[in-house]
Write a structure and sequence with these properties.
Layout: E1 4-7, H1 18-29, H2 37-52, H3 58-68, H4 74-90, H5 98-107, E2 111-116, H6 122-130, E3 141-144, H7 145-148, H8 155-165, E4 172-176, H9 179-187, E5 191-194, E6 207-208, H10 215-224
Parallel strand pairs: 1-2, 1-4, 2-3, 4-5, 5-6
């Protein structure tokens, strides 16, 4: 019986990779990065890991990233790039059916939990990201990497909300888009759903869905087949 759904935040509730695509196109057109977007994504993730862990600021690691690509005028590019980042963040909209699906799940007495690799605390995420969508009341728990010092797929970020809710791994469904996160959850014995896998990297997910509302079909299928 599913008692809680754990969600990644960016690229599961809304598109969050447009800024990275913008950077990738700039660097590729400038001849500073010649590989695929997927490889650019991985490279960037390595640099910002310590931001999510709360060990460095975005300014420090982003400049380090720019210098690794040997970009001219890194400080000026950082200023312009962060303007684009803010623009994309201010214009994000929820995927179709997110709010309605969260409401449906909560009405079933199933907990909605966000576990996110994020440079912000839970309080900051609720106030600066979630509040604009009017869904804070639908989210029982938000766990951020900034708050606990580890990122997905570290087992702690999955186990923390399970301990709070006093539930077992068999009672959790994780919805994500990233291969490492999905495979990591699955290795812990958590049922997994792949959604918005824009990088197209194969995962070991138990289910693949095309619309957010299809999470309800997955819950129905699991609960129907329970012993």
């Amino acid at each position: 019986m599913i008692k809680a759904v754990f969600y990644d935040l960016g690229d599961v509730f809304f598109e969050a990779h447009y800024w990275r695509e913008w950077m990738y196109k700039f660097f590729k057109n400038a001849g500073l990065f010649t590989s695929s977007f997927a490889n650019f994504y991985k490279l960037y993730e390595k640099f910002i890991l310590d931001i999510y862990n709360g060990k460095n600021t975005y300014d420090e690691k982003y400049l380090e990233f720019l210098n690794s690509l040997k970009i001219k005028n890194p400080y000026e590019f950082k200023r312009l790039s962060f303007e684009r980042k803010k623009y994309f963040e201010n214009n994000r909209v929820l995927f179709k059916g997110v709010k309605e699906t969260l409401e449906n799940i909560k009405d079933r007495d199933i907990k909605n939990v966000i576990i996110t690799d994020n440079e912000a605390t839970e309080k900051e995420v609720r106030e600066n990201v979630i509040a604009k969508y009017n869904i804070n009341h639908l989210l029982d728990i938000i766990i951020t990497s900034k708050d606990i010092g580890v990122t997905k797929p570290d087992p702690l970020i999955f186990k923390k909300p399970m301990d709070i809710l006093k539930i077992e791994k068999e009672e959790v469904l994780f919805v994500g888009h990233d291969k490492e996160e999905i495979n990591g959850a699955k290795e812990l014995g958590i049922k997994t759903v792949e959604f918005d896998n824009y990088l197209g990297i194969e995962t070991k997910s138990d289910y693949k869905i095309k619309q957010f509302c299809d999470i309800l079909n997955v819950i129905n299928a699991i609960n129907k087949n329970r012993c």
